[in-house]
Design a protein that fits this description.
The complex is a heterodimer of chains A (95) and B (252). Chain A is of the alpha+beta class and 95 residues long. Chain A contains 2 helices and 3 strands, in the order ββαβα. In chain A, strand 1 and strand 2 form a beta hairpin. Classes of the chains: A alpha+beta (95), B mainly alpha (252).
């Protein structure tokens, strides 16, 4: 045994056809194939999914919490970006 | 032995193989080096125990004496278990466990594929369900076998030792006795010679890819299918049956 930890992988599960993959959690694995197996054995034991994606956590480019103000706050006062100013004509069922 | 007796013995034996291997794997629960593999092993063990339940329930119905799955699992003695010797061998180290599973499941998958086509509908249905589980097990365990064989010098050496040691128990899987012969003739059961040829091809390819040396033909152990077991089974059964033997009829 070595003390070296296996790399971390993020697991994404599609619960049924037509839906998108959602983040389910993470697992450790030595390689991609082992990661897929471990994801299957860990996160689909109760029929949670029909498709699995795994990706090395180190390969994910993530936003920096320090950038939160610059990244997300400018959107907070742009209420015109929400489609809430339209009046729906009577009789329109599917919009 | 008539065809009904052979069917009962055959189904019961399938249950024994599934239960004893499942119980062996249960011994490793909470003892695995990695959480992910721990879960995989526990899942696989429960797959086997689930298969044992289906075979035993059917065996009880065939027998017609009111015995159920628990009676078969917990209230029979060592010599009444007819599992093959390979799967009752101790877990040993990780490479031993993986090698045992690869050797057995390479055989079991072929057996289940053949059983899907047998003339007994209930056996065919159970086999169809079990086949999907075992196909995944074998895929998973084969990858480990390849990693260990083609891994470090130490893993290579140790898994070669596992293979050399366990090889002597593989012959029994293909040695047809009266029960196998009647089941093959009367219920369109598996042809063990044909399965042996296919198994040898598949296993040779895996051993080669794992950069391991295939053990040569040699003496093969036998007796499990007739109830003559190695010294390891008795301890296992004692542990497995302790609760039911001490508190007869105990339920959750």
């Amino acid at each position: 045994m070595t003390d070296k930890e296996w790399p971390l992988y993020e697991v994404f599960i599609r619960s049924k056809s037509g839906l998108s993959h959602r983040h389910a959690g993470s697992i450790h694995a030595a390689d991609d194939q082992m990661a897929l197996d471990a994801a299957r054995d860990t996160y689909t034991r109760r029929s949670e999914g029909v498709s699995i994606w795994v990706v090395r956590s180190s390969q994910i480019v993530a936003s920096d919490p320090a950038d939160t103000a610059a990244f997300f706050e400018p959107a907070e006062d742009k209420i015109y970006r929400h489609p809430t100013f339209y009046e729906v004509p009577d009789g329109v069922e599917n919009l | 032995m008539n065809r009904e007796q052979a069917l009962l013995a055959y189904v019961s034996r399938l249950g024994d193989n599934a239960l004893i291997l499942g119980q062996r794997m249960v011994e490793l629960v909470a003892a695995y080096p990695e959480l992910e593999e721990e879960l995989a092993n526990a899942n696989f063990a429960l797959d086997f125990i689930g298969q044992a339940r289906m075979f035993y329930t059917y065996a009880g119905e065939l027998e017609g004496k009111g015995r159920g799955e628990d009676d078969f699992a917990f209230l029979r003695d060592e010599n009444e278990f007819r599992n093959i010797l390979l799967i009752e061998q101790p877990n040993g180290h990780f490479g031993d466990s993986i090698t045992k599973l690869v050797l057995f499941e390479s055989f079991y998958l072929l057996l289940l594929e053949a059983l899907k086509r047998c003339a007994d509908q209930r056996v065919a249905e159970i086999a169809a369900r079990a086949e999907k589980e075992i196909r995944y097990h074998l895929r998973h365990n084969t990858q480990w076998f390849l990693r260990l064989g083609d891994g470090t010098d130490e893993s290579h050496e140790r898994v070669q030792g596992s293979l050399d040691n366990l090889w002597q128990y593989t012959g029994e899987m293909f040695a047809a006795d009266e029960i196998d012969q009647i089941f093959a003739a009367s219920f369109n059961g598996p042809d063990l010679d044909a399965i042996h040829d296919q198994w040898m091809m598949n296993v040779t390819a895996i051993i080669c890819e794992a950069t391991l040396a295939q053990p040569g033909d040699g003496w093969m152990a036998s007796g499990g299918k007739q109830g003559h077991h190695s010294e390891h089974l008795g301890y296992m059964i004692a542990e497995m049956q302790y609760l039911q033997r001490t508190h007869a009829g105990a339920t959750w």
